[in-house]
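Hi everyone,

Forwarding the result from last night's run.
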Amino acid sequence: MKRLIFLLLIGTGIIFTSCRKNLNDDLIPTTPKTMDELEIPSDFNWKTIKDFQLTLTGYANSIVEVTSPQGTVYQKAFLTKNEPYSIKLTVPTYEKSIRLKYMGQIIELELASNEIEYVFN
């Protein structure tokens, strides 16, 4: 009997505390209803792609494949031995690096500047 009364008291306490109004409701930001209500910083870049100038030089005549780290192929090109080959590479803005596949080599390059040059050894 004592156990039943104890359980009823605890259950009643839980019910009353769960029915209280949440005091943090005023801190929740409101969702904009129209585009005019959006607050967008003036320096926000709306571009979804980035352009790079990529110059590659190979030690043999062969095909180079430029891919994302996940394997999406961006470009394929034929490199002539010891001759620089330049391409304009366009990638999504979320990409931070690319992979080069050339004669069994896999090289990962960071997209740190707009002009990237790489010489295969």
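The domain at 49-119 is CATH 2.60.40.10 (Immunoglobulin-like).

Cheers,
N.
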